[in-house]
Amino acid sequence: MQAYAKPVIHKLHSGTMNKFAGAAPRQRRVRSEIAGVPVEELVQRFGSPLFVYSERTLRRQFRTIRNAFATRYPEVTFGWSYKTNYLKAICAILHQEGAMAELVSKMEYDKAKVLGVPGQQIIWNGPHKPFDALEAAVRDGVTINIDHLDEVEDLEAIATRLGRPLEVGMRLNLDSGIQPCWSRFGFNLESGQAMDVVQRLVDGGKLRLVGLHCHIGTFIMDPQAYAQQVEKMVQFGYDVEARWGWRMNYLDIGGGFPSRSRLKGVYHAADVVLPSIDDYADAICDTLWRTLKPGHRPRLIIESGRAVIDEAGSLITSICGTKRLPNGTPAYVMDAGVNLLFTAFWYRFDIAMARAIPGPCEISVLYGPLCMNIDVVDEGISLPPLSRGDRLVVSTVGAYNNTQWLQFIEYRPNVVLVTEAGEVELIRSAEDLSDLDRREHLPSHLATRSGMESQPC
Ligand SMILES: Cc1ncc(COP(=O)(O)O)c(C=O)c1O
Hints:
The structure is a single chain. By secondary structure, this protein is α/β, with parallel strands linked by helices. It has two domains: about 35-50 and about 310-435, Lyase, Ornithine Decarboxylase, Chain A, domain 1, CATH 2.40.37.10; about 85-305, TIM Barrel. It has helices spanning about 40-45, 55-70, 90-95, 105-115, 130-140, 150-160, 195-205, 225-245, 270-275, 275-290, 305-310, 400-405, 435, 450-455, and strands at about 35, 35-40, 50-55, 75-80, 100-105, 120-125, 145, 165-175, 185-190, 205-215, 250, 260-265, 300, 315-325, 330-335, 345-350, 350-355, 360-365, 375-385, 390-395, 415-420, 425-430. Strand 4, helix 3 (about 90-95) and strand 5 form a beta-alpha-beta unit. Helix 2 packs parallel to helix 10 (about 275-290), helix 5 crosses helix 6 (about 150-160) and helix 8 runs parallel beside helix 10 (about 275-290). The structure holds pyridoxal-5'-phosphate.
């Protein structure tokens, strides 16, 4: 039996092509494979929804970004931003490629240690560094970038315990022309606060400043913002050197390069609105060459997250229900929603169909599985009539989704990696009730069935 489909009226285009080079509304793109593996095969083996990473894409993207900088400046190091994606396999690939670990919590530090990352290959940023973990990290040789004055006191106490002065970095916040200005992390440059803190380090006599860190924000679409940032960081370093003789060994410029995804509210495709990675590398490295003193080549540290991993990740999801809203708009319920796709709140994803589906396209809504009104993945997507079981492939989703996903209402699904050899490896297993159960404790007076039965309804 064929399902009823509401008739749809389509505007006929005739004559010359329109300025967007396509006269008729086109079918949505079909993506039947991910990294060479058929979507249907992946679902048969690992279920739906399913996160799929391409090792080849990840390595290629990392190398492209690294080479853009390494061909322009001699001392470049990448720090892999764990918060962007701390799946072990992903971190291990990036460490193999030579990236340090860039961390912002004790949990991330624990993860890096489990992976065997040596302290000299770790940078610890962020506003929360519990004392014991900070001491362990200092003993381990981790590079610490100070976020606030209480950390200065903690580090001085650790220096006293160790009986030696410590080399530290500090985080700056500054105006690079980007709004909003991320002023809550580190010390402000323009107000003089950062220089006061250097004076405080000098007065304390236990900490020596050897590096500067600054992360101006994320999805920065203007390379000139980095030029301003780098110029201010270099100048600040030389001001410190002029007053106290401390020369900066490194300039850590944070992350923030955009991925090829599309932000909500941005009409054009990424290739139209986004500068290339070479544009960013030019802006940053040209500024370094222009502002650094002859012979001074501080290490340039880049903590790019989103731009490295986003395109390597896709999510397969299946339609589990179809409906029409009261205004006639087709709506589909998928087995993945904002619980797995946190970036849905600001990205307009590239959503492809796993097979060609006949029928006229209509502007439709894609909902996730949560019984929550906010669970909307796309509110205006042109789709042919979908049926239960049809699969969609959502990309680019490699950044921030597998760290910010929620165990809310639903279990989190399998994550697989398609290796360079084309093998499919399970890199994170789907959760089940035991994951929740082993963390919960039922007080004994509630543990018996009779106890439950004695409660009033
Ligand atoms: C200190 C720091 N470094 C690096 C990153 C990675 O940023 P992105 O993913 O925008 O490259 C972040 C993200 O917020 C950050 O806070």
